[in-house]
Write a structure and sequence with these properties.
single chain; alpha/beta; nine-stranded mixed beta sheet; 8 helices; 9 strands; 18% strand
Length: 304
Amino acid sequence: MSPGNFQHTAQPPETSPIRRFPGLPKLLVLDRLKRAQVASLAHEPIHLHWVWRGPGSAPSLPLIMSPNSFDTLLLNIPRDTHPMDLYDLRLDQLAAAVPEASFLWIMVRESTPVNLDSARELMRAWGYRRAEDVVWIKSDFCGRASRDSGTFLHDVKEHCLMGIRGTVRRSTDGHIIHCNVDSDVIISEELNESGHHQKPEELYTVIENFCLGKRRLEVFGDRPRRGWITVGRKIRSSNYLPLLYESLWQNPASSLLPFDAQIDALRPKSAGDKPRESLLRPRSHTPTGQLPIRVPTAFGQIRP
């Protein structure tokens, strides 16, 4: 169901993102194929109990996660965190150098001390450039008890900023990103069946559909998820073994979702997109079997 349809009819939104694009059967098939591919190649949930309440309150995350780095980082900012304290997390030290870019997603709620401006500044300090802004509209706000959120209007949305470190091109980097598979608006309930707050399932799907890197880390998460390492104080147990996790990616190509001809034929493309097979040939001639490396720019970009 599209956001506009929900706005005008007040009908509950569908949970599948592809339902928001009625009349597009190819996207329906694409959604099914991509979900199946991500699920089939996802490792078991990995989680780590880590209590951080500010600078110096816990061992640094880069030290704990070493020697591993990540293609995708998702930061859920605790509500009581001061913006300046977040710089101590140094998530920039966890960004993967190969392939050509890494991605940082930051959840932002305007009624908390960390607003959109401070989140963008944090991204810049870590070498990321904001490229997208996903908006989560909470469809179950009506009927809930009203509370003073510290804003002038009722706070019924959250933002998820996406930043890029490095440079990716839509036309040649289809092995790293798949653009325009999902929209930048999510409509879902904030409370689950138990009455607890939770991030929408669709947010993870948007990230997994866009970023083809399989090394994913969620910071301050509360629900372990297949294909991710989830770290935070709400996680009650730990099964993260650094060297075992590192062994999953001994072959550099294994850190990316593999090429799928059906997905590549269905996914939206920009003008000038090159066939995926032509992008594979340079790798097959690399003597060491390593991915070719391009030096990342200071701030990320998505180019045509």
